[in-house]
Write a structure and sequence with these properties.
- It is globular and about 120 Å long.
- Helices cover 42% and strands 16% of the residues.
- Helix 2 packs antiparallel against helix 4 and helix 6 packs antiparallel against helix 7.
- It is built from 27 helices and 31 strands.
- Among the domains are: 187 residues, no CATH class; 212 residues, no CATH class; 45 residues.
- A hairpin with an 8-residue loop joins strand 24 and strand 25.
- The longest helix is centred in the N-terminal third of the chain and has 36 residues.
- By secondary structure, the protein is of the alpha+beta class.
Amino acid sequence: MANSSEPSAPTPRRRMSDRGRVFLIIAAVVLVGLLLSARMLAGFYVDYLWHASVDRTDVFWGILWSKLSLFAMFGGTFIALAVVNLVIADRLAPSAFSANTHPVVERFHEFFGHRLKLLRIAVAVVLGLLFAIPTMGRWQDWEMFQNSKSFGINDPRFGNDVGFYLFKLPFVTFVVDWLFIALVFITILVILTHVLSGGIVLQPPRPKLRRATKAHIAVLLSLLALVKAGDYWLTRYELTTANRGAVRGITYAVDNAQLPAVLLLAMIAILTAALYLSTLKTDRWRPAVVASALWALVALIGGIIYPAAVQSLVVKPNQTEKEAQYIDWNIEATRHALGIDNVEVREVDYGALTRSEVSANVAALQDVRLWRPDAKTAVRFRTDDGASDTTVLDVDVDRYEVDGRTQQVLVGARELDLDQVGNRSWQGLHLINTHGCGLVTAPASQVNADDKPAYRTDIVDVTQPELYFSPSLSGYSIVNTSVDERACDGREDVAYEGDAGVQLNSVFRRLAFALDELDYNLIGSSAINDDSRLLSIRDVRDRVKTIAPFLTLDGDPYPVVIDGTVVWVIDAYTTSNRYPFGESADTSQLSSGSGLGGNFNYVRNSVKATVNAYDGSITLYAMDGAEADPVLEVWRAAFPDLFTPASEMPDTLREHLRYPEELFRVQTTAYSKYRLDAADFFARRGAWSVALAPREQPTKSGTTTVTTDTSSTAEDTTAQTDFASDSDAARYVPYYTMFHADGSNEATFAMFRPFSPFSASDQRKELVAYMLADSDPGTYGQLVAYVLPASSLPDGPFTVGAAMDADRDVGQQATLLDQGGSTVEYGDLQMVPVGDGLLWVRPFYVESQEAGQRTVKYVIVEYNGNVGLGESLAEALAVIFPGFSTPIGDVVNEDQQPSGPSDDATPEELLQQAEALFDDADAALKDGDLGLYAERIEAARALVQQALDLLNG
């Protein structure tokens, strides 16, 4: 008997059958495919809902239709060509296989047999889809081709309108290139089909081809040759933007060597096509093969070797003479393409300056900016603001009416900082902390008694401080939920009253967003109701880019207050790299965060985009003069309702438009070289360079600053065997300023950048000229170059900065303050015309080791080689002009900071305040204090005007 305690044998595990494993694999693949498809469809639906929320479904459907049109056209073309050729290959196949048919061919026919027709169609469709999908990315070229406009300017070599190169040539070139590659693949597919059908027998020593098969292949090869001939023909036009010589575009070697070679190659390609077709009758392939070899040889010699030989042996020894005509073409094209063909030139001269003249013209000095709008000043604003859940990431310069006159004002937005919020839950990040709060403002030309910004709350009137959209915001937020949002300081809990975002009024919408964001909380949260709205794409630049992907956006959006609401203004550009003969823009001097980088040789700032910080609405203003930008006109034709005419821009917005710094950098760099004619262009005789940037860090006392010769007689050793170019030294950074061009009290809000005479190694550092880009409403966009007499050039900014740095008092203070955890740094070196003279002013910063503690410790003034250092601008001026005592108003005590007139002041009270100011002005005039006199008069007039407005209702 068996022992009952003995363990029983283990039951063998049932193994899944092969059919079961296959089923599970297929089910898993299908499930993954469904999930991926569901998310893709959800993303498509969410994208549509977003466009609908900003009333831009015309853009959504317009772009989609363009992509689908391209997909259908190119996919259909490939499928048709492939199917036709595969059918022909099948018809030409032998009725029976030869005895030496390859075994692989036999097995192929055994497996597919009667399914060969379906296989041909499937292969053609799959390849057609693969060839069609990438073409959808060329939808912008397709739109420009369909809506092309005329520039009214013809290129000097071929006589074509410039619009042909920017709008038609890119798409036509793409079609030819695509067709060539498609025919290559179809030819390979046809050869493979003939192999599998017996038309080509693979046998040693070489394959055997039936005559019908050879005829089919010959036709395809002739088509390839003809398409390539067309490509050569288009290459002639593409050479107008080639970089193969002294300047961009066609040069002597290209015109006299490469262009003839390209035409020869086109003719050889046509001849080769004819020879391949001739084989249909003669069955003689040798002439076609010889022609193909000749073609390759000519391409090597004529396309590469011969042009290089002409450049080295003919052009280089006589470059000035040989390239003169082509340089002239390049100059004219570049001036127009970069918008520097209408620069107004004015002559200006500066002489001696006395104390009385300075006292009589303090208005220009009152507009000197003491605070640089950079990251460190933004930290200063952020530190002083002290908010824990908002941050000031950027400070911008604008102009507002302050104390009766237009002044530069630093404006920083309190943007939402999700990294600093205390509540890190899902509700805290998406439902409670949803927005930033208002603006921080301070006059750019004033400091308080603690050397900090003189913050004021009466400069702008923000009645809707919530910033739901700003440059740094990412992710999404949901408003109008059952959870209260964090309120801005000084405001009660206010429910969102805008119509931004997508209303989550259905389970289907919530599910779509949950799939798109991969966030279950969008379905599971009970705080979301039918009135809730999801705000996405909250970065203002991304919002504009989404509805206008064909525009290049500036990297510095800036806030403006319009009717109590913050509106972000973004400069938008139309750009192209296909302007014939135009030189590529030099972008080496753009800042690291610039949005105008990349390769382009045509640019216009034809669009001003605005994004409402509260409701997210987007407006694209086509600026006055946009008719002169055919690129913009193309997009206006493609999307007729997308742009708003500049005439509909509110005046309150127009008053705050700024000429974009990025564009000004590009234009001033180009103008310094392209202001010349062809005769002087080669060696840059009489050319300018953007002035060298002065050093940023002070030299401590006891060290030696070495400067190079700055005299006007410094020898320029530029060799004239090659084009002279600027050095890689840092160049003067342009800045916004209230500029008094003639030293008077009339100021223009403009961007400023100075020039020095060109020298190969920057020996010349004098001030030869400077350029202003006007931002005032009536003269917006005007570029003016102020040129000084060559016989008496004053010191340029690099020399002035070196003189300031070498001053004993400056050096001593730098040594004293640059220790104990503190660092010293110079601010912007600003040129200030005063009366008939020229002053340079520069703030002296001290920053403690504790982050965000930048202060304006001193102000430095330079005049005619003399340097003055003081704790205020007036003190520094008194060092150079002894006895100077006119108040500038750059230092303001806390109790002297006006907060503006009371909102409920009566006309009688306002007139009484104005009368008192008029009395102060009379007293200042008797004391000879003209600066204070002008300030009090302006303030009094402002109060009188306010009283009149109240009386008139």
